[in-house]
Amino acid sequence: MGLLDGKVAVITGAAGGQGRVACLAFAREGARVVACDLDPAGNEETVVAVRAAGGDITGFGPVDLTDRAAVERFVAAAAARYRGLDIVYNNAGGPRFGPIAEMSIEDWRLTIAVELDSVFLVTRYAWPHLVSRGAGVILNVSSVGGMIGFPEPPMAAHVAAKSAVIGLTRQLAVEGAPHRIRAVSISPGAILSRQGDLDPPAQAAVTGRTLLKRWGRPDEVVEAAVFLASDRASYITGVNLPIEGGVTAW
Ligand SMILES: NC(=O)c1ccc[n+]([C@@H]2O[C@H](COP(=O)([O-])OP(=O)(O)OC[C@H]3O[C@@H](n4cnc5c(N)ncnc54)[C@H](O)[C@@H]3O)[C@@H](O)[C@H]2O)c1
After folding, report:
1. Which domain holds residue 132?
2. What is the pTM of this model?
């Protein structure tokens, strides 16, 4: 018996470090996974890896989650593939970092589009499917940057988008409760999948901010996501779970 047996789970950003591990873990737990990414080759690699491990997955790519019509088509195809949806894991992300004094309006808008609009759009089109199912889970990936500011790297747009994801999740929990839809956000700290974004001094600064004095592995985020998406977490909604090695504890 898997924790997610028979559930249909949409996972976005499936070509990425956390998304691929999420697809593998959700399939391992018995979910039928619908994966998408802007990067079709990486998405297909995830599909191949999940099938090689014996999992059930269908991939769609490229899907640009900032494109309203593309998201509408993707969610409709996802729901048709396995006849309905149970779990929406809004994982895709891609921030532009930089100090506020130098941040262009284009970088701001792109970050908000990828990291906030995409969560709204996927959820908006998935919502009727969850309502008609009579239950569901929305799992939104925020960030420790949605909880506190960071001097290095400076990340105004990312902080704004990810803070909004936490607020949006609370509201989805409120509106979802009458339909037995739970909504939860998770806030990773520094995860190895994006370690290469930073130069060595900045990487060391990030490590020093954690209590555990190391970066997190994608599976350390994803295993919490598996639990939160499962019926074992049936009394958990409207909350944000930091998964960040203790960054916000001191
Ligand atoms: N890695 C970290 O340190 C860290 C920290 C906090 C939060 N997060 C969040 O975790 C989530 C997963 O990130 P990751 O670490 O796997 O990074 P990643 O860069 O490896 O994966 C992100 C994926 O999102 C996809 N994507 C980007 N723009 C897209 C678009 N417009 N449409 C569709 N797909 C798009 C990318 O192609 C990529 O495959 C993201 O939401 C990220 O913001 C990551």
Report:
1. 8-249
2. 0.98
